[in-house]
Amino acid sequence: MTDPAASGSAPGSAPGAGLSERLTALFWRRPGLLVALLITPPLLWLGVVYIGSLAALLWQSFYSIDEFSGAIVKEFTLKTYAELGLQQNIDIIVRTVLMAAAVTVASVILAFPIAFFAARYARGRWKAFFYLGIMLPLWSSYLVKVYAWKLILAKEGIVTWAANGIGAGPLLDGVLALPVIGGGSLSTSYIGTFLVFVYVWLPYMILPMQAALERVPTSMIEASADLGAGGLRTLRSVILPLAAPGIIAGSIFTFSLTLGDYIIPQIIGSSRYFIGQAVYSLQGTAGNVPLAAAFAVIPIVIMLVYLTIARRMGAFDAL
Amino acid sequence: MRSDRPPFALTLGAVGGLLFLHLPILLIFLYAFTTEEKSYQFPPPGLTTEWFAVAWNREDIWPPLWLSLRVAAMSSAMALILGTLCAAAMSRAKFFGRDSISLLIILPIALPGIITGMSLRSAFALGGIPFSTWTIVLGHATFCIVIVYNNAVARFRRLGPSLSEASADLGATAFQTFRHVILPNLGTALLAGGMLAFALSFDEVIVTTFTAGQQKTLPIWMLDELVRPRQRPVTNVVAIVVVVATFLPILGAYLLTERGTETAGGGK
Amino acid sequence: MTPAVEFSHVSRLFGTVRAVDDVSLTIPEGEFFAMLGPSGSGKTTCLRLISGFELPTGGEIRIFGAPSGDVPPNQRQVNTVFQDYALFPHMSVRDNVAYGPMVKGVPKAKRHALAEEMLALVHLDGFGDRKPAQLSGGQRQRVALARALVNQPRVLLLDEPLGALDLKLREAMQDELKSLQQRLGITFVFVTHDQGEALSMADRVAVFDQGRIIQVGSPSEIYERPATRFVADFVGSSNVLSPAEARALGGADRWASLRPEAIRLLLPHDPAARLSGRVTTVRYLGAGTRIGIEVEGRPARELAVLIPAGQPVPAPGTMVALGWADPALHPMEAAE
Q: Which of A254, B114, C134, C239 is 20 to 30 A from B219 in CA distance terms?
C-alpha cells in the first residue's frame, strides 16, 4: 500500500487560468450572477411572450370598433368596456361565473372521497392504482373526453337507452322539460354542459386535495377520535380545515378552466353563450377584436382576485 | 373513525368516482367499431373493423398529425430548456422577487387558456406577425414550461446542494459538476417533464385555435369533426390514436419519476 | 513551519446572525484538530469556510500561508468528508472514488488503480462495482473517506462523519480514523458535537459556542482546566460552583469547576473533610456509580460524585463527608 501523503506534493495548485476555471471562480465569488444568468432566458420568454401578450390584450380592449365600417378604431376609449355593460353581455358573464361556481362545488364533493381514500387508505399497489387512475383521465386528451360525452348524452345515446331500459324515460323527459337547465336532449342542455365540465376538470381537484390530505397526520385524526369526536365531526373540524389549502388550489383550476372554456359549451350545451364562446366568436366571425379582448379581461380580473386570496391562504404550497 | 378499514360510504364514493372518470373513455373504443355512421346510437347495431382502414386512407388526417407531432416536439424542446433553467435558478438560495417569478411561471396554466390564446392573437395582430408553425409553438412552449419546471424543481430539491459541493470539493469546475453530477441525476426528471409537455402540446386545442390561423393540428381537425361530423366512427379511430399517444408518455413519466412521487399534483 | 490553516479575526454573518464571530485560530500541519460545540455554534460554518463553500464576511483565512479569499473550492488543497457522505448515487463506488482524478484528466486505467488503492486503504477491497445504495452506513462512510483522500489533500475536513453510525461502529471508526491520520500524517479538521469523540481522537480541541471559540487546548487541558462554565458543563459533566461558594471552600473569587470523579467520600469527622452532606440519589452507570449529595449549608445545594467501580456505595439517606485535593477545585472566569 502506498502512502498517498508521501507520493508527492498535492495536486490542484492553481492550474492555468482556463476559461472554465475562471468562470467557476466567478460563479463562486458571485453566486447571484449564476442565478441571474439562469433565470434571464425563461424570464425574458415569459415576460416578453406572455406578459407582453397580456399587455397587447389589454391594449386592444381600449380600442373600439367603428359601427358602420366594422374597422378597428385605434384610439384610446372606454366605449368597448361600456358595451360589456349591455344586458346581454352581463347575462353571459353571470351565467359563466355561476357555472364555474357550480362546477367547483360539485368537483369538491366528488373529489373528496377519491382523494381521501387515496391519501389515507390506499397503500402499496393500491396507491399506484389510484395514482394512475387519477393521472390518466387528467392527461388524456381533452377533446376525446368531450367527445365521449357527446356520445353518452346524445338523444340516441347511452343515457337515454339506459333510462328507457330501467323505465326512467319519463323522469329524464321531466328533467329535460325543466325551465332554464333543461333542453331538447342532455347534450343541448345546461345539465349536459355542467356534467361535462365536472367530468373534465375533476382530476384537477383530486390531485391537490390528495396532496393536502396526505399532509394531515394520521395521529391527528386519531387524536380527534380519541377525544370523542364522531366521524363527521372529525371531518368537519379537523380534516376539512387541514385540507383547505388543497381544495383552494384545486378550485383555482376548476374555476379558471370553466371560466375560459369555449369548446365544451359549444359542443354540449344550449345556444346561449359563455364568456369563452363570446370571446371566440367576437374575435373570429364577428371581427370585433376590441370587445373580445375586453371580454377576456374579465376572467383575468376574477382570477387575479381569486389567486390573491388563495395565495394568502397558503394554497400555492399545495400546487 | 379507526385507521385501517375505510367506511363503506367512502369506498363507494371513491370507486364510483374512479368509474365516472374512466367509463366514458372506454366508450370511445366501443364506438370505433360500430356499423352506424350517422348517429351515436346505443347499443351499436353491429360491429366492424372497417373504420381503421378508412381512417388510414383518409388523406386529410395525415397533415394535421404531422403538424401536431412537429409542434409538440418543438414546444417540449423549448420548454425543456426554459423550464430547467428556471428550476436551476429557483432551487438555489432565496433571492429577491422569487415569489413573483413562481407566480409568473404558473400563470399560463392558472389563467384560462382562452386568455393565453386571445392575448397571443392580440399580440400577433398588433405586431403584424403572420400565423405559422412558430406562432403555435410560441403559445405551447409558454404553458409547457411549468410542466418541466415542476418536475425539475422537485428533483433539484431532492438532490440538495451537497452533491454539487462534493463535486467542487473534489476539484470539478462548475461545468464538470453539471456534466457529471447534475445532468445524470436530473435526466429522468427532465425526460418525464419533456414527455408530459409533449403530451400536453399534442392535445392542446384552446390556445391553438387562436394561434394557428388556417393551419390544422390534429385536435383542430377533431374539433371540426365534432362540430360538423362526416364519418363519426373515423373520429373515434383518431380519438383512440390520441388516447394511446398520450397514455404512453404519461406511463413513461410515471415510471421515470419513481412512481410519480415527484409529479404528483404536477398540475397539467 | 507554516501552519496548515490559520484564521485571523474571521466572521461570517448570515443576515444579522453572527454564525462565526471574530474567530482566530492556528492549526499546525499534521495535527488532528477537533471543533466541538452544540449545534448552531458555528463549527460547521468554520469548516465550510476552510473548504470554500462559505466566504468570510470579515477577517482572513490562510491555508498553508496563502490567503484563500480568491481560491474557489475546486482549487483548494483540502477535501471534505460530508456529514451525509454526498456519494454520487448514479456512479459505482469505484467511479465515486475516482471522481477527483477523473475531473483532473487522469486516464481511466490509472484513476481506477488509484481508486482501488484507496478502497484498500479503507478496507473496502472488492466493493468497487457496487452502487452506494447497496452499501451499509459504515461502508458508505469509508467510501466517502476514500473519495476525499484520493486527491491527496494536505488537509482533510470531516463534518460529523460518524454521526449517522451506531455506537459500536462509531467506536471502531474512531480508532480507525485516528490510526489513518497518524499513518498519512496529514492534517485532520474534525467537526463534532460529541465531546467524547473530540477528547478521544483529537490532538487539540476548540470548543465553540454562539459563533465564538471559548477555549482551545489539548483534550486534557480542556477537560481538567475548563476556561468557562460553558466548557466545564459541555465537556464532560461538572459541579460548577459560584464565586461565593468557591471562596467559602478556600478557592479564588471566581467561578470554579469540581469534577465529580475528583471528589472522594470520607468517613464523617475525617480531618481532610471539606464538606458533609446526605446522599439523595444513586445512579449505577456500569463503569462507576454516580451519587447526588445534598450538602449542608446555606443555601443548600447538590453535588455530584462519581464513585469508581468496586468501591462501596453509600445508601440514600446516609451522611457522608467529602474531600478533594487542592488542584481539583479549578478556578474559571471571574464573576461578572
A: A254
User: Which sign does the torsion angle of CA A317, B2, B4, B6 carry?
Assistant: negative
Q: What 3-state class would DSSP assign to C14?
A: strand
Q: How far away is chain B from the Cα of C47, in angstroms, using its nearest Cα?
A: 12
Give the pLDDT band of residue A102 (cuts 50, 70, 90). Answer: very high
Nearest to A135 among B123, B200, B250 (CB): B250
For A5, which of C75, C150, C152 is closest by C-beta distance? C152
Rounded to 5 degrees, φ, ψ at A64 are -140, 180
* ipTM of this complex prediction, to 2 decimal places: 0.85
Q: Say how far apart CA A51 and CA A43 lie, in whole Å.
A: 10
The torsion of the CA quartet C299, C300, C302, C305, rounded to 10 degrees, works out to 100
Do residues C10 and C208 lie in contact, with contact meaning Cβ atoms separated by under 8 Å?
no
Classify residue B50: in a domain, yes or no: no
Where are the domain boundaries for CATH 3.40.50.300 in chain C?
A: 5-233
Give the CATH number of domain C258-334: 2.40.50.140
Q: What structural domains and CATH numbers belong to chain A? A: 32-56 (no CATH), 86-318 (1.10.3720.10)
pLDDT for C336 equals 65
Selected residue of A9, A28, A33 to mutate for chain C interface (largest C Cβ count, 10 A): A28
CA angle (A18 as vertex; A15, A20 as ends), nearest 5? 115
Number of domains in chain B: 1
| Chain B nearest C-alpha distance from C216 (Å) | 27
- pTM for the model stands at 0.80
Cβ atoms of C240 and C233 closer than 8 Å: yes
Taking the CA of residue C161 and the nearest CA in chain B, the distance in Å comes to 14
User: Is B10 contained in some domain?
Assistant: no
Question: How many alpha carbons fall within 13 Å on the CB side of residue C75?
Answer: 22
B touches which chains (3+ CB pairs under 8 A)?
A: A, C
pLDDT digits (tens, 9 = 90+) for B133-143: 999 999 999 98
> Lowest mean pLDDT: which of A85-94, C220-229, C266-275?
C266-275
C5-233: CATH number: 3.40.50.300
